[in-house]
Design brief:
The complex is a heterodimer of chains A (565) and B (180). With 565 residues, chain A is an alpha/beta fold. Chain A has 23 helices and 20 strands. Chain A has 3 domains: 4-175, Thiamin diphosphate (ThDP)-binding fold, Pyr/PP domains (Rossmann fold), CATH 3.40.50; 194-348, 3-Layer(aba) Sandwich (Rossmann fold), CATH 3.40.50; 369-541, 3-Layer(aba) Sandwich (Rossmann fold). Helices cover 38% and strands 17% of the residues of chain A. In chain B, β2 and β3 form a beta hairpin. The mean pLDDT of chain B is 92. In chain B, strands 5, 6, 7, 8 and 9 form a 5-stranded antiparallel beta sheet that branches. In chain B, strands 2-3-1-4 form a 4-stranded antiparallel beta sheet. Helices cover 36% and strands 41% of the residues of chain B. In chain B, α4 runs antiparallel to α5 (131-142). By secondary structure, chain B is of the alpha+beta class. Classes of the chains: A alpha/beta (565), B alpha+beta (180). The interface between A and B is medium-sized, with 24 and 23 residues.
């Protein structure tokens, strides 16, 4: 193999190029300066997005990874630069997002001396990375980067971190690159066991009331077509987890809606009536199951899952099919009989009718005076032809947007699920827009989460990213307030905000925007935002004390879902 | 029901891996009763032996998570009955106590311990056995005053006639060949 003499820093950039990296999110500083200096010569091959905070860089990398399926890459310096990545890394770990985070570190002779901007980032990030490694010699760089990408993107994806000492960035090496395809101690792929598939198929053919639950595993495995083929052959209703959203088009007749705490009425109560649950690429999160001891008691459980540690972790399975959902679903489809479950499906439609009358219509076509979050989401989805990428922050707007935004293609939902990271929305939208340059990106944020990372408006404007931000302002930390109302006797302990003039702030960053306070201005306001060539902030002042329903109260069974307070 | 389990982990010998492994216990507030790490029969592969007192379901789940650690080759768990295990203890007593009467000598003989070193001031006694046995000797000797006492972590070997280490490496080779 041909080699050439280069510095460790140049080796970092060349290795990233070998891995097909086209976008890096980051923030320079002392210990990573040699890498940034090397990057300066590669502006044609790779674009670097300077965020306003390292947390912005890591969330942007997550957003990029979500819409592309490729690893998001971010750079930060040692010490505070590295520790500012931690929230995003934890978020990526729990939501299985492939990230390669590269941090600078003090020169290796200074390790352990409390040098300026030294922090033990390998130690700090260990519980929240799939793998991490400290590089102290330049010659380790190509192999470390090759391993980092292989580990981040294979099996159940996750974040990895490479901490590169400054002296290793300066050293010269003979560079050659070889992609990593296997590691002795790490099994990235497993062949699907045909006997398990047969056992699962038998249960499916026997079932009278089967329900399929799909999660992000379908999207990660790119098994959307296989999922569709399976449900269409078997006629089994399919419900999604928050992260499974967009894997099956919203208008598919077998798509029966969202699971979990603020999910739809039917999928929740029918979970406990089903005689078979087929869980695909999901992990029975507590927000999905509610009270575990009262979950799916009448059902046999089939679990299609890539991660063996998820089998029986929360819910005991009858048949576990290990492997990629792409393979296992396809094999399952070949092994099941064609079927229809019309009467059972009708029960879901009946539930939907109840939910429509009691909740949905009031949310999305309200009669009351105050504006609702639901109508803003509905109109935004309509005006973008149900074809936009949805990015949400965390809280009420996240649940409402996930419930009412419609999707026609996969990899279109970018949200912080497992960690519930407020402040995720705006920076994740930066990454989502760069990963899906030709698509409209609609980012819903609340007034609380917006103020956690709104400095990234600067990143959006500097990079001319046409992100459409819809700020649903209720002057409250709305979800916490809702819980205080329902479970803490309306004791609104520190949830009301005195907010700035957000439109002026946007203007200060050079971003266009306007504020809507009346229903008659809403449609036109959304249209103006969508038509605007460039980034836009639409602030909608919504009802202060609106709640998200239905709701499975914390610790209650999914059958005890409530439709109204 | 909580009981003692012996967790055996085979891993690459890499810096920081001990931390990555113990994190999985800390995270669940699971106490490690004893821990031993050393090179296994295969060069470059370390073996961890970890003893916990826990419910089996929790042990099973933590072992599942340990197997996910990239540099871990394989993790098992066993009950005490399924393994032959041993610990080592060292005791330092004043040499005078051996002169004063023959009681210390008798205790040492009876317990199957042996004397490692004798100086004018102190004598070091070594005993291998289960924790109860090394503890029993400690209590017996302590009547005469034990100056220092130290016990090692547990090491254990399965009663299985099959050698698990080679079994899992074969299994691993098959899986890796599927990747190609």
């Amino acid at each position: 193999m041909a080699t050439k003499r280069i510095t460790g820093s140049q080796a970092v950039i060349l290795s990233l190029l070998e891995e097909g990296v086209d976008t890096i999110f980051g923030y320079p500083g002392g210990a990573i300066m040699p890498i940034y200096d090397a990057l300066y010569d590669f502006d044609k091959q790779v674009s670097h997005i300077l965020t306003r905070h390292e947390q912005g860089a890591v969330h942007a990398a997550e957003g990029y990874a979500k819409v592309t399926g490729k690893a998001g890459v971010c750079f930060a310096t040692s010490g505070p630069g590295a520790t500012n990545l931690i929230t995003g890394i934890a978020d990526a770990m729990i939501d299985s997002i492939p990230l390669v985070c590269i941090t600078g570190q003090v020169a290796s002779p200074l390790l352990g001396t409390d040098a300026f901007q030294e922090s033990d980032v390998v130690g700090i990030s260990m519980p929240i990375t799939k793998w991490n490694y400290q590089v102290t010699k330049a010659e380790e760089i190509p192999e470390a980067i090759a391993r980092a990408f292989f580990i981040a993107q294979s099996g159940r994806p996750g974040p990895v971190l490479l901490d590169i000492a400054k002296d290793a960035q300066f050293q010269e090496i003979d560079f050659s690159y070889k992609k990593c395809t296997k590691i002795r101690s790490y099994i990235s792929k497993r062949a699907v066991d045909p006997f398990k598939v047969k056992a699962a198929a038998w249960l499916i053919d026997q079932a009278k009331k089967p329900l399929l639950l799909f999660g992000q595993g379908v999207i990660i495995a790119q098994a959307e077509a296989e999922l569709k083929a399976f449900v269409e052959k078997t006629g089994i209703p399919a419900a999604w987890t928050l992260l499974g959203l967009s894997a099956l088009p919203s208008d598919h007749p077998l798509n029966v809606g969202m699971l979990g705490m603020h999910g739809n009425y039917g999928p929740n109560i029918k979970t406990n009536e089903a005689d078979l649950i087929i869980a695909v690429g999901m992990r029975f999160d507590d927000r999905v199951t509610g009270k575990v001891s009262a979950y799916a008691k009448n059902a046999k459980i089939i679990h299609l899952e890539v991660d063996p540690a998820e089998i029986d972790k929360i819910i005991k399975t009858d048949v576990a099919v290990l492997g990629s959902a792409k393979e296992s679903l396809a094999m399952l489809t070949n092994n099941v009989k064609e079927n229809k479950h019309e009467a059972w499906l009708q029960e879901f439609r009946d539930c939907d009718k109840v939910e429509r009358e009691k909740v949905i219509d009031k949310d999305i076509y309200p009669n009351k005076e105050g504006l609702t979050m639901g109508e803003v989401v509905r109109i935004t989805s309509e005006k973008t032809n149900h074809n936009a990428v949805l990015v949400t922050d965390v809280g009420q707007q996240q649940m409402i947007a996930s419930r009412y935004f419609k999707f026609s293609q996969s990899k279109s939902n970018v949200t912080s699920g497992g960690l519930g990271t407020m402040g995720y929305g705006i920076p994740a939208a930066v990454g989502a827009q760069l990963g899906a340059k030709d698509r409209t990106v609609c980012c819903f944020v609340g007034d609380g989460g917006f103020q956690m990372t709104l400095q990234e408006l600067g990143t959006i404007v500097q990079n001319k990213l046409p992100v459409k931000i819809i700020l649903l302002n209720n002057n409250f930390l709305g979800m916490v307030r809702q819980w205080q109302q329902l479970f803490f006797e309306k004791r609104y302990s520190f949830t009301e905000l005195q907010n700035p003039d957000f439109i002026t702030i946007a203007k200060g960053f050079g971003m266009a925007g306007h504020k809507v306070t009346q229903r008659e201005d809403l449609e036109e306001g959304v249209q103006r935002m969508v038509d605007h060539d460039g980034p836009y902030l639409l602030e909608v002042v919504v009802e202060k004390e609106d709640n998200v329903f239905p709701m499975v109260p914390s610790g209650a069974s999914v059958s005890d879902i409530i439709l109204e307070a | 029901m909580k009981q003692e389990f012996i967790i055996s982990i085979y891993s690459e010998n890499h810096i920081g891996l001990l931390n990555r492994i113990t994190i999985n216990f800390t995270k669940r507030k699971m106490n490690i009763e004893s821990l031993t790490v050393s090179e296994s029969a295969i060069k470059g592969i370390s073996k961890f032996t970890i003893v916990v007192k826990e419910e089996e379901d929790r042990v099973k789940k933590v072992v599942g998570q340990l197997e996910k650690v990239v540099e871990v080759l394989k993790a098992f768990y066993h009950t005490n009955d399924e393994m032959v295990f041993q610990e080592l203890a060292l005791y330092k007593v004043q040499t005078d106590t051996l002169y004063d009467s023959d009681q210390v000598e008798r205790i040492v003989r009876k317990s199957g311990a042996r004397i490692l070193e004798i100086t004018r001031e102190y004598t070091v006694i070594e005993k291998t056995g289960h924790k109860e046995e090394t503890q029993e000797l400690f209590e017996a000797l302590n009547q005469f005053g034990v100056l220092q006492f130290i016990r090692s972590g547990r090491i254990a070997i399965t009663r299985d006639p099959i050698e698990r280490l080679s079994e899992f490496l074969r299994e691993r080779d098959t899986l890796l060949s599927q990747v190609d």
